[in-house]
């Protein structure tokens, strides 16, 4: 029925799944999120396609992810896994740092994670992020600041404790 929809999903499906993975921190939950949003979008595709489908679907993914109903239906949380650290200075060290950062992102609130993904992955400004999350740009900045502060603290707790003690 909607050949434009099928073409869009073939062309942009991988991008949508990557974006959802960044939001969820879990490949399978990200795929479920994309599927849920695409099912809803299919029903209104003629209107969506005429406007900006990328922006519409990105917004729908973020709102679905952050919504109260999704929070209730996805109460499972991945367990924290402790990894041994490889020798410094090589590819594996950089990969381990990257993996640790991604695992720490799962500890942020959904709104903080969404703001950081929209800011650093999608390169959106505070106003654009606020429109997607239906909040003020100042609220976006608060989520970003708190999320980054939490990441900094968790990635370097000794330094954060020393800094906090001296101020």
UniProtKB/TrEMBL annotation:
Q: Where is the RNA polymerase sigma-70 region domain?
A: 9-73
Q: Which SUPFAM superfamilies match?
A: Sigma2 domain of RNA polymerase sigma factors, Sigma3 and sigma4 domains of RNA polymerase sigma factors
Gene3D superfamilies documented for this protein: 1.10.1740.10, Winged helix-like DNA-binding domain superfamily/Winged helix DNA-binding domain (1.10.10.10)
Q: Indicate yes or no for the key word Transcription regulation.
A: yes
InterPro entries, per database record: RNA_pol_sigma-70-like, RNA_pol_sigma-70_dom, RNA_pol_sigma-E_actinobac, RNA_pol_sigma70_r2, RNA_pol_sigma70_r4_t2, RNA_pol_sigma_r2, RNA_pol_sigma_r3/r4-like, WH-like_DNA-bd_sf
Keyword check for Transcription regulation: yes
Name the domain of life: Bacteria
Which Pfam families does the entry link to? Sigma70_r2, Sigma70_r4_2
Name of this protein: RNA polymerase
């Amino acid at each position: 029925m909607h050949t434009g929809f099928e073409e869009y999903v073939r062309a942009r499906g991988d991008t949508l799944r990557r974006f959802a993975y960044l939001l969820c921190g879990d490949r399978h939950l990200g795929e479920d999120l994309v599927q849920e949003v695409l099912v809803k979008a299919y029903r209104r595709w003629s209107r969506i396609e005429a406007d900006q489908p990328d922006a519409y679907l990105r917004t729908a993914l973020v709102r679905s992810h952050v919504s109260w109903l999704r929070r209730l239906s996805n109460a499972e949380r991945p367990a924290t896994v402790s990894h041994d650290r490889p020798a410094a200075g090589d590819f594996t060290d950089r990969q381990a740092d990257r993996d640790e950062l991604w695992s720490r992102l799962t500890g942020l609130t959904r709104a903080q994670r969404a703001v950081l993904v929209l800011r650093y992955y999608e390169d959106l400004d505070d106003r654009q992020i606020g429109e997607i999350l239906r909040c003020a740009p100042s609220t976006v900045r608060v989520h970003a600041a708190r999320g980054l502060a939490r990441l900094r603290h968790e990635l370097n707790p000794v330094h954060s404790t020393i800094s906090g003690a001296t101020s």
